[in-house]
Amino acid sequence: MQCIKCYMINNVLIRPTMQVLRQACLPTASLISTMATLQKKPQENRVQPDAIGASGMTVIAVANQRQLTLARQIIKLAYAQGWSVGHHIMEEKLSAQLGVSRSPIRAILRLLAEYGIVELQPNRGCFLLVSGAALDDVKLQAPPTHADHLYSLMIEDRLSGSLPQRFTQTEAMRHYGVARPLLERVLRRLAYDGLIARNDGQGWSFSQTLDSQQSRNESYAFRLLLEPGAILMHTFQPDKHILQRLRKQHLLLIEQIKDHVLDNALAYETDVDFHRSIAAFTSNSFVIDAMEQHNRLRHLLEFSSYSNKARVINWCQEHLGIIAALETGNYKKASTLMREHILEASDSGLIRL
């Protein structure tokens, strides 16, 4: 069987299309080998901090999900503790704080050194070359896993109708040609995101509330009620650092699209992070919980829209306009722009409220 390969171009992981995935097998051990080879050529594949574009973010490609988690923990620790330039990073201390051995920490520090974020000095140790606050400008990316591919494929197949609303685990294993442990991981993830639920009898069902034009209308109506009003709540207080980070994320996404690269997962993450942050600024647990639950449901409802490059750039620009209004304290304008943004999204989906 032919195996799918992923390529790193300008430090961005290029995934195979869904059409290609259907014509060949899901990633196998050879894919892991291919990615490992690419990761061993940092100078050819990686973008250095002095050439990161208008977004102001440094994009670092890590080898796997485990490395991604550990790198995020180290950067979060540096940011939270306010490490200054020249801070001595001790492997032994990090190992104790994060509960891992020194070897994976050493690998992360070597990776950060390639980007000029830390310096490894022989017989002296590792030292930070930027402030802990500046690490908020670092974005970490890991290659998609087998489960990521299958998760996305099942959603797209449901949207296209090739995967029925109700299905059994055996049917899904036969349909996708995957092993039970991999499918079970994906089913648990879909269930956690509120996209599927176990049947009373046998098998699983996709949520019917996400499967109709009426559901889409109701989704946008809910957002119109919640999000513009949230900005006008008396408890609404934006965090300027989060707003800066959101701007950089959106500019990074626009840059990648203009370089003819569009990662649906990155687009979804950027979109959801923006709306989640707006809800969080209210400090109202009911608003936050409602937005978080709805964001999970939107993953299926709007999944296919993230492949529309023109629309993604448009909503990025709309988000940036809202961010600019929030930074100047013009909450009324931000609320109006949010309402226009949601209406524009509904019109783009051929939905009328």
CATH homology superfamily name of the largest domain: GntR ligand-binding domain-like
Query: N- to C-terminal separation?
Result: 48 Å
Strand order of the largest sheet: 4-6-5
In the CATH hierarchy, what is the class of the largest domain?
A: Mainly Alpha
Query: Strand share of the residues?
Result: 5-15%
Please give the count of helices: 15
Main sheet characteristics: 3 strands, antiparallel
Number of domains: 3
Order of helices and strands: EEHHHEHEHHEEEHEHHEEHHHHHH
* CATH topology type of the largest domain: Four Helix Bundle (Hemerythrin (Met), subunit A)
- What global shape is seen? globular
Report what the structure shows.
The chain has helices at 18-23, 29-39, 42-45, 65-81, 91-98, 102-114, 146-160, 169-176, 180-192, 213-231, 240-258, 264-280, 285-301, 309-327, 331-348, and strands spanning 7-9, 12-14, 58-61, 88-89, 118-121, 125-128, 138-141, 166-167, 196-198, 204-206. Residues 1-53 have low confidence and may be disordered. A hairpin with a 5-residue loop joins strand 9 (196-198) and strand 10 (204-206). By secondary structure, the chain is mainly alpha-helical. It is globular, with a radius of gyration of 22 Å. It has 3 domains: 49-139, Arc Repressor Mutant, subunit A, CATH 1.10.10.10; 145-206, Arc Repressor Mutant, subunit A, CATH 1.10.10.10; 213-348, Four Helix Bundle (Hemerythrin (Met), subunit A), CATH 1.20.120.530.
